[in-house]
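R.M. (postdoc): so does anyone remember the format we settled on? I'll just put the structure tokens first.
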């Protein structure tokens, strides 16, 4: 299996909505996040191309900046307990640390004032990387258009949930 490349557009396809749209390498919508409330909300839903919810992302009340991700299946939350928790690590600037009870730990390294990030596993291997997308002539397409490359063996919906949450934590969505 090969790495998969996505285009992440930090805009919603829905008029007057906040969110992002993710296209696969064929130009088809693969994932989307739509939020009809205010920007920088405390709740968001990651959906597939047909609108089925894959993850709900909730900011914990009185949680000192913690967010939780709940995995969905068949239009229902799979578990009462969060699949992962995430927050900004203030000692390391914009770096976010993800604690995940279901699988393993991930670390998201973001670069301040740049539209790029890396998701690493607990051994430091890069699982996914997002950089500012460029045209074939090398022109940047804007701060809100990213090229996301995901390793083949990684759950793509989990990576998208982490990227979405990173955007929410850093007020990009």
């Amino acid at each position: 299996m090969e790495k998969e490349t996505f285009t992440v557009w930090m805009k919603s396809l829905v008029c007057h909505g906040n969110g992002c749209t993710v296209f696969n390498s064929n130009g088809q919508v693969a994932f989307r996040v739509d939020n009809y409330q205010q920007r920088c909300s405390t709740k968001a839903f990651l959906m597939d191309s047909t609108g089925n919810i894959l993850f709900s992302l909730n900011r914990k009340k009185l949680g000192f900046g913690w967010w939780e991700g709940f995995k969905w299946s068949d239009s229902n939350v799979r578990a009462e307990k969060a699949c992962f928790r995430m927050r900004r690590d203030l000692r390391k600037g914009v770096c976010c640390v993800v604690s995940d009870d279901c699988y393993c730990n991930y670390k998201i390294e973001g670069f301040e004032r740049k539209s790029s990030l890396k998701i690493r596993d607990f051994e430091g291997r890069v699982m996914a990387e997002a950089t500012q997308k460029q045209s074939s002539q090398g022109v940047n397409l804007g701060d809100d258009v990213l090229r996301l490359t995901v390793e083949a063996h990684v759950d793509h919906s989990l990576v998208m949930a982490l990227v979405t949450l990173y955007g929410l934590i850093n007020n990009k969505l």
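R.M.: ...and that's the designed sequence above, right after the tokens. Also worth knowing: The chain has one helix and 13 strands. The mean pLDDT is 80.
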